[in-house]
Design a protein that fits this description.
It is built from 12 helices and 11 strands. It is α/β, with parallel strands linked by helices. Strands 1-2-4-3-5-6-7-8-10-11-9 form an 11-stranded mixed beta sheet, sandwiched between helices.
């Protein structure tokens, strides 16, 4: 019981954006941009109801001042909010995209009494996708869904659903394979407890209290159904969502995909540490037209079987199961 409520209880603050001072320290350029956009009412609030029709959900959005045909849906992580996703939103806005940054259920200014770990959130993000298309019109003829941490898990869960044709690409940064896997990892590393009986009991309680279970909440299974291109990003020293999780995710994805395992960054800090390189990786994945070289001719072998140490400083971009460098 304790673990379920510890992990899934909504963790809101009196001021959802109380980390403003730290945000300004970490991202001074983004903070100045966001303030200026807010001052001229270019960065705005919008609301929809969640997929059940019972709760109000909030998002920040901005229409680009160029004649853009692209929109980015940027999804935050565990206990975070739309405001904390503004660095990724800023990156896309500077690339000419319209942007929409949702507060997931139970986060930020959105309603809700729990954290859904990306699983039920996928249904809310689908509603945001349709809302963004209505709001931006032809400015959302091409849409990318980009998530970080739990937001990455959300994006991957969305990717396995039936999608409108204008959703073109997915980018996941530091996502996990399944809720079962990440909770098992946290039980072991944070509490030094075994899966049985704790995780099994918590799984039953979650099903009873929240209507879903840890094993069905599987980005890995959803990615296996994804038909749109996907870029996978992870650090080789991530201890919050362990690096090994990216390899089965990458292996499960069919069709065009790319993998960037960067060196030395903490969990979900790739953009913070390498904003220029991160932007270039995203641009190349979305817009690059590249020739391909077969994976095994480059000696890559079975990516899913590689250890984090073996994958250090590796960067792959793949098109239809083939390798090129980005």
């Amino acid at each position: 019981m304790f673990f379920v409520h510890f992990a899934l209880a909504s963790k809101k603050y009196n001021d959802p954006y109380s980390a403003d001072a730290q945000f300004k320290k970490d991202y001074p350029v983004v903070k100045a941009w966001a303030d200026s956009m807010t001052d001229v009412h270019a960065l705005r609030d919008t609301f929809i109801t969640d997929h059940t029709g019972h709760y109000k959900l909030h998002a920040l959005y901005a229409r680009n001042n160029v004649n853009s045909r692209w929109t980015a849906i940027c999804i935050h992580g565990y206990t975070s909010d739309a405001y904390q996703m503004l660095p990724i939103g800023y990156m896309y806005y500077k690339m000419g995209f319209n942007i929409l940054l949702p507060d997931l259920y139970g986060h930020g200014k959105s309603g809700g009494n729990g954290i859904q770990m990306g699983w039920k959130d996928r249904l809310d993000v689908l509603k945001w996708i349709f809302a963004a298309h209505r709001a931006f019109g032809r400015g959302s003829d091409n849409m990318v869904v980009h998530g970080v941490s739990m937001g990455a898990a959300t994006a991957m869960c969305v990717s396995g659903e039936r999608l409108p044709v204008y959703v073109k690409d997915f980018i996941e940064d530091s996502g996990f394979t399944s809720v079962w896997d990440i909770f098992s990892y946290r039980l072991d590393h944070q509490f030094h407890l075994p899966d049985f009986p704790f995780l099994y009991t918590s799984n039953l309680i979650c099903k009873f209290d929240y209507g879903w279970n840890f094993k069905e909440a599987s980005p890995l299974k959803q990615v296996a159904k994804c038909t749109r291109p996907m870029l996978f990003i992870h650090s080789d020293v991530d201890t919050s969502v362990p690096t090994w999780m990216v390899f089965p995710l990458y292996a499960a994805k069919k069709g065009r995909k790319a993998l960037w395992v960067l060196h030395g960054s903490k969990h979900a800090k790739a953009y913070h540490d390498h904003p220029v390189l991160y932007t270039e990786k995203v641009k190349t994945f979305l817009f690059g037209k590249r020739g391909c070289t077969p994976l095994r001719k480059q000696g890559v072998g079975n990516l899913a079987a590689r250890t984090p140490g073996q994958m250090q400083k590796v960067c792959y971009a793949c098109c239809s199961g083939k390798q090129v460098h980005i």
